[in-house]
Amino acid sequence: MNEADVRRKVYRLLRELGYWPITQTDATVCPKCGTRSIPPIGRPDILVLHPTQRSVVVEVKSLRRTETSFPFKRVTPEQRQWLDRWEEAGGLGYLAVGVLRPHKTKTYLDHLYLVDWTAWKEAEGLVSPIQGSIPLEAGKGTRRVLQEKHLDILNLLRHWALHSEDGRWQLPKGHSAWPEEAP
Questions:
Q1: Which of 90, 81, 87 is nearest to 119 (CA)?
Q2: What is the value of pTM for the model shown?
Q3: How many degrees, rounded to 5, is the angle at CA 152 between CA 146 and CA 153?
Q4: Which residue has the higher pLDDT, 39 or 123?
Q5: Mean pLDDT for the chain?
Q6: Cβ-based neighbour number of residue 28 at 10 Å
Q7: Which domains does the chain have, with CATH numbers?
Q8: CA-to-CA distance for 70 and 95, rounded, in angstroms?
Q9: What is the pLDDT of residue 180?
Q10: Pairing state of beta strands 56-64 and 92-103?
């Protein structure tokens, strides 16, 4: 399992909610002339349409449990600019973070977060004065201030955590990605 697999899980969830997600590959090759076409730098991984809802963009990232923390620089300046501008224009932006756990020869998706971009920036603002990454869990081996204030993914982003039912990821009640009822 890798970031592409996390992207597929998020895509499937969005389809089940009634959205029309559109993913892009990193580059496509024209079958006739062989020219490589690269999408705009920073464009989010998933563009999400719905006939009666605000448009949504989702940037997907993964974190292996062995990494212990998510470096803020993993979200590039161009990706940040896309998400910021999208929200400024009235759309919804999310950062999806999948926590991967290797076990023997396989890797499993342990946790999946679909975090509102504004909420992510708030969490980042709490942690970034201390260090350049947010720990998965602020326990032994992390800075004391992070432990004391519970500044980690498991605590700061718990409201954005999805849960798995029968192998399918589900949004918690009250999550802002739930489609609103049509008037």
A1: 87
A2: 0.89
A3: 175
A4: 123
A5: 92
A6: 12
A7: 3-66+76-117+161-170 (3.40.1350.10)
A8: 12
A9: 78
A10: parallel
In this structure, what DSSP letter does residue 74 have?
A: G
Rounded to an integer, the average pLDDT of 170-174 is 93
Q: How many CB atoms lie within 10 A of CB 13?
A: 20
For 89, the token pair is 């224009």
Per the structure block, which two tokens stand in for 11? 């895509």
Q: Are 44 and 75 in contact (CB under 8 A)?
A: no
Rounded to whole angstroms, the Cα distance separating 53 from 2 reads 30
pLDDT greater than 90 at residue 61: yes
Are the beta carbons of 78 and 115 closer than 8 angstroms? no
Q: Write out the two tokens for 78.
A: 């161009």
The answer to whether 87 touches 117, Cβ cutoff 8 Å, is yes
Structure tokens at 180: 């609103």
d(CA 111, CA 164): 9
Please give the share of the chain, as a percent, with pLDDT higher than 70. 97
